[in-house]
């Protein structure tokens, strides 16, 4: 019996073409497949069907290489601080180049998933630090002391924001084009959301400056803060829709796009949960403090059920986890508080029991629950477009 190799190298494929085992076209097609999804876990195609296939770590060797990558990066950083002392711009630049160079081996050649994620974050963080230093040195923006200084900073703030956030997005796109690391989808989504916030703020500023928008008074601030929730909600919906589109494009979750969708769901969940919770219950805008009320209880229950149903429909636990965490810390406290007052059980204990039971329930029987709830409530035409049910 011939032992199956862990990986077929490029030289092996060239040799196979030379001896006539495969054609040159087949070799080129294999190279194109590898380049299109270098981090796709081919070995996971026959894995447990009930898993969400979060290809975040490739095994013990990947973890081993990740530890080495962290140690190597830490050593390089401290060495750079010594050699380039007092030159933070150069330090950030060489760190970004260092991350790219190591990724050429770890990611491009060996496709180490966890180590590749660490290197991608290193590159994104170093690039953001580099751009922040450039912005600080170029525009020299300082904390304003008077309203007139705020008005005078409009042009500087807009240019600095576009340079910083736009540069991060461009660098992340370039890195993703080269290495196909899924977590960069989340980085791009966060930077794009911040850019949308900046643009909205500038539009409001221009409206106030031109007189087309009335400046809010102190009494209007609570309503203004509540209206400001529309911006993260819209951004969250855009990110969520993009993630769902990628999920529908890769229904079997065998390509890198489903991994990108995972990180987009992680980013979109907080932006959806908090605004919807505040708008639906009418609670405190900043902290989401729960006040007794039947309407808040009903709306909170509807929101939880709605998020659970959507998570089941698109087969994404990554959307449900932050939702349960948020409602567990803010909403479920009120739902179980009355029971705590009558039984004497601490509310914190009831919160842990409730969240823990839900997590175990959905974790142990996710596909059965999904098939029972989603399969029996949606038409076949819709089910055919969603991720398939798994045995």
Automatic annotation (TrEMBL):
The chain crosses the membrane at residues 63-83, 89-106, 118-139, 159-177, 184-205, 225-249, 261-281, 293-312, 319-336, 348-366. It comes from the Bacteria. Coiled coil: none annotated. The keyword Transmembrane helix applies. This is DUF4401 domain-containing protein. Keywords: Membrane, Transmembrane, Transmembrane helix. It comes from Tianweitania sediminis.
């Amino acid at each position: 019996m011939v032992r199956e190799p862990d990986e077929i190298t490029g030289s092996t494929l060239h040799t196979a073409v030379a001896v006539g085992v495969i054609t040159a076209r087949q070799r080129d097609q294999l190279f194109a497949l590898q380049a299109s999804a270098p981090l796709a876990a081919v070995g996971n195609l026959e894995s447990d069907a009930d898993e969400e296939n979060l290809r975040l770590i490739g095994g013990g060797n990947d973890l081993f290489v990740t530890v080495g990558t962290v140690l190597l990066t830490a050593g390089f950083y401290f060495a750079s601080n010594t050699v380039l002392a007092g030159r933070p711009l150069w330090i950030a630049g060489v760190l970004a180049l260092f991350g790219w160079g190591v990724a050429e081996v770890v990611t491009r050649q060996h496709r180490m998933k966890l180590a590749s994620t660490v290197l991608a974050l290193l590159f994104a963080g170093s690039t953001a630090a580099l751009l922040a230093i450039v912005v600080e040195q170029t525009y020299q923006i300082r904390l304003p002391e008077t309203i007139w200084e705020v008005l005078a900073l409009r042009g500087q703030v807009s240019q600095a924001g576009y340079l910083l956030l736009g540069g991060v997005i461009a660098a992340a796109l370039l890195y993703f084009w080269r290495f196909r690391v899924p977590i960069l989808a989340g980085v791009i989504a966060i930077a794009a959301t911040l850019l949308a916030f900046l643009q909205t703020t500038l539009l409001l500023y221009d409206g106030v400056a031109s007189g087309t928008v009335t400046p809010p008074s102190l009494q209007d601030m609570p309503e203004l803060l509540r209206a400001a929730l529309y911006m993260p909600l819209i951004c969250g919906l855009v990110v969520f829709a993009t993630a769902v589109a990628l999920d529908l494009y890769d229904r079997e979750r065998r390509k890198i796009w489903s991994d990108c969708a995972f990180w987009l769901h992680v980013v979109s969940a907080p932006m959806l949960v908090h605004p919807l919770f505040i708008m639906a219950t009418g609670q405190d805008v900043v902290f989401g403090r729960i006040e007794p009320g039947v309407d808040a209880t009903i709306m909170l229950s509807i929101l939880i059920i709605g998020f659970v149903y959507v998570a089941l429909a698109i087969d994404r636990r990554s959307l449900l986890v932050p939702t349960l965490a948020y409602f567990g810390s803010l909403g479920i406290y009120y739902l179980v508080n009355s029971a705590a007052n009558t039984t004497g059980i601490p509310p914190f204990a009831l919160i842990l029991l409730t969240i823990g039971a839900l997590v175990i329930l959905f974790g142990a029987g996710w596909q059965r629950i999904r098939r029972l709830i989603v399969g029996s409530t949606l038409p076949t035409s819709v089910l055919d477009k969603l991720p398939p049910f798994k045995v």
